[in-house]
Amino acid sequence: MTTNVAVVKTSFPLTLDPVPVGQLHQRFVAVTGTIGDPNYSVWVNGRQAVVAGNTWSAPQVPVTPGGVAWFEVTAYPPGENPQPDPEEPTRNPVTPNSIATENNTDKPCRSEGVKDFQGWYSREEGVYVFPSGPEEWTADLHYTHDWHTGQPAYGREGDYRWNSVSGGSGCSKHFTWPPSEWPMLNPGSWEGDCYPGSGEWGAPAIAGEHCAVEVKEATMWTDGIGLRDYVRHAQTQLRVYTGGKPVPKRRSLFVFSASASTIFFKQATPPYNTPWLRDWQRPIPPQDIVLGDLGPVGSDHRLYKALPDGETHDVTPQVKNKEFYWFGTEMTPQKHKIFIAANGYLLDPERVRPEAKYCVGMKINLAPVIVPAVDGIQEKQVSWTLAKRFINAFRVWKPNQEGPPWDESCYDSAWGLTDFRVDPEWLHREQTRAWWLTGGLEYETKPITVGLHIKFENGQEVGFNLKGLLDMHQPSVEWVPEMYEPGVPHGRKYATLLQVKVGDFNSEDDRLQLGADSKSLFRGSFGCTQLIIRDSAPESWSDWRLDNTFPYISSTYNFGLNEKYGVATFVFGDGPDIPWGGYVADLFEQYFQFRPDTPGSIWVTLGKANWDWRARIVDSTTNPEGWDWASPPSFYHSQSIAPSAELPEWRERKLNLP
Questions:
Q1: What is the Cα–Cα distance from 590 to 24, expressed in whole angstroms?
Q2: C-alpha angle 539/399/646, rounded to 5°?
Q3: Do 269 and 142 share a domain, yes or no?
Q4: CB 3.0-4.6 Å disulfide test: which of 112, 141, 222, 513 passes with 182?
Q5: Whether the bond into 389 is cis, omega within 30 of 0
Q6: Per-residue pLDDT averaged across 113-120, rounded?
Q7: Quick one: which of 67, 157, 74 has its CA closest to 107?
């Protein structure tokens, strides 16, 4: 059940009390509410209410047709005398100083009787053989009614008899019923030539049936014989409202339960659940029943259907080759809404719900959820489509590299991380997951869809295309120019060893230094992960390896009092050196990353920078320090952070890198 309320702010309260959902399918309901100023007048859906103090009430308020009940409440100050609009009789008049509130409530699904026709005719004729002589006789009886929901209904019955000795007698009644709405059927009245000429007539007896029988039979008594001719036709039509507002491509699961019984006593009339009639009935196999325009019922008496909200369907049970059967009048299904849940929170297909807000790096578990749960499911097949950019799998390497890789739960113990990817196999799991890599500082809406195919134990199958919307936040990242200090290559001869370094060997001078800022709506950490490729005399490798720890450096976000964003800043310093050999060429990639402080989260990249340095020294006999540059050294840094969602990958890490 969905209820939306829009309130226009006023200087005093104007409210509408909830209307019981069971009444929302009625054409008219009584509504009540409150108002802050008893001098105002109140109208509801084109009807003027009675104001008593700070409460108001209105009987016979029209309910809007369709799957949503809409109520408009308008208050008018003293002196304004609104007049109804004959072209829009269910809308409240508009005046310069009127104020209003609205309430929109989804109507529940329900079934109802739409039509019921019953008509039968019986003629009997025969002869009695008495000692005084034969007596011929006839009896003509008939009954018919034709009822439609919400409309005046009518019917008639008659009883005429004739005897060759005593003559004829009989009378007939014509009855009418006022308009009534299912299931509250109103009694009516009759008039005719039967005594006393008019009177009350009970409400229609509607059992839910199909009848098309004809009986021709001879009758015999100890003192006579006769012939009976009996014909009866009856048909009840049922329909179901699926309830709610129609939304393109959105459907719910409806579970119908249907049964029917053959009636072998052809002269039976409603009600059919009387004890004496039980021996004249046999259950009809459920697989022989077709439920209106929805299709055949399963062997378990159930029919599973995927239907949109706001529709009407015929649910009259139909059985081939059966001339007389009854099925009752209750066909209201169980309605199951199906959503996509993100970390247990149900998503909406049309708007982002208040709590459907997430951030990059957060592990988001996704699943289709049926509310309420439904039994009888044999299997489900799913196919997910997620908005870019995300991953759902990666490889976690052990420190010794032996044996199969760890799973993602060992992320924080990883020696190496590779193969960040979208694994198609995860897109076909009912319970799937994703880590988004991109979003927006003020959120970016991500649509999620899943094709869900359900097979039930009775062999029936239904399919859904579900959609959900969520907002994804991505923190900002900014280069801080005033914090940047370029590195300066230095060389020296230490004993017999030729050494090179970024920065002074005996102080913190000339080391690389940089700073970065980030702001986030979510709590977490801001850090930098650095990968290195090295070519040097002591060691060389051509694949990217992790420089020391993961991340290399990090800080947490600080949220000030009443501040929307948390702010994080770090200062990065580095001064690699080569302990011997006098030669190095290093390449570095820096990944500026964010990690939320929620379980299962990962570090995601906000931006990248790169830097490198080269230096070569040789022994020198002319330089008093005993060494000289073989070629001019170089140092380069991009001095900016380029937006990027690329995740760093490595299988090896270099610990305690100078």
A1: 62
A2: 75
A3: yes
A4: 112
A5: yes
A6: 96
A7: 67
**Taking a C-beta distance cutoff of 8 angstroms, is the pair 536, 509 a contact?**
no
pLDDT, tens digit (0-9, with 9 covering 90-100), for 23-62: 888 889 999 999 999 999 999 999 999 999 999 999 999 9
Residue 654: helix, strand or coil by DSSP? strand
Q: pLDDT tier at 10 (50, 70, 90 boundaries)?
A: very low
In a domain, 323, yes or no: yes
Same domain, yes or no: 155 and 297: yes
User: Which of 635, 316, 247 minimizes the C-alpha distance to 466?
Assistant: 247
Signed CA dihedral, 528, 534, 538, 539: sign only: positive
Token pair 């002869």 is at which residue? Answer: 127
Which segments within 474-539 are labelled E, that is strand? 478-479, 489-494, 497-502, 512-520, 524-536
Q: Per-residue DSSP letters for 102-118?
A: EEEEEPPPEEEEEEEEE
- For 124, the token pair is 């009997």
Domain that includes residue 604, residue range: 478-654
Instruction: Report yes or no on 338 lying in a domain.
Output: no
Both tokens of 460, joined, read 């029936």
> Is the peptide bond preceding residue 372 cis, with omega within 30 degrees of 0?
yes
Last residue of a domain, one of 473, 501, 519: 473
State whether 96 and 151 are in the same domain.
no
> Cα separation of 575 and 509, whole Å?
10
| Mean pLDDT, all residues of the chain | 92
Beta bridge partners of 528: 553, 592
Q: How many CB atoms lie within 10 A of CB 272?
A: 21
Amino acid at 213: V
Looking at the fold, whether 166 and 270 belong to one and the same domain comes out as yes
Q: Note the residue count of the chain.
A: 658
Gyration radius of the chain's alpha carbons: 42
Strand, helix or coil for residue 280: helix
Our count of domains for the chain comes to: 4
For the stretch 300-319, pLDDT in tens is: 999 999 999 989 999 999 99
Confidence of residue 658 (pLDDT cuts 50, 70, 90): very low
537: left (phi over 0), alpha (psi -120 to 50) or beta: alpha
Instruction: Please give the average per-residue pLDDT across 198-222, as a whole number.
Output: 93
Pairing mode of beta strands 461-473, 357-359 = parallel
HSE (CB half, 13 Å, CA atoms) of 345?
A: 15
Q: Are residues 447 and 494 in the same domain?
A: no
Residue whose pair of structure tokens reads 């001339």 in the numeric block: 323
Q: What is the pLDDT of residue 472?
A: 98
Average pLDDT estimate for 506-527: 95
Q: Is the dihedral of CA 558, 560, 566, 571 positive or negative?
A: negative
Residues 262 and 130 in one domain: yes
370 or 66: which leads in pLDDT: 370
- Give dist(CA 72, CA 93) in Å, integer: 11
Same domain, 95 and 116: no
Residue 171 lies in a domain: yes
Q: Which of 86, 108, 130 is the last residue of a domain?
A: 108
Of 119, 416, 387, residue with least CA distance to 269 = 119
Q: Do residues 535 and 559 touch, judged by C-beta distance below 8 A?
A: no
Asked if residue 578 is part of any domain, the answer here is yes
Cβ pair 517, 529 in contact under 8 A: no
| Beta partners for residue 573, in sequence order | 513
Mean pLDDT of 518-527: 95
307 with 187, same domain: the answer is yes
Q: Residue 129: which pLDDT band, with cuts at 50, 70 and 90?
A: confident
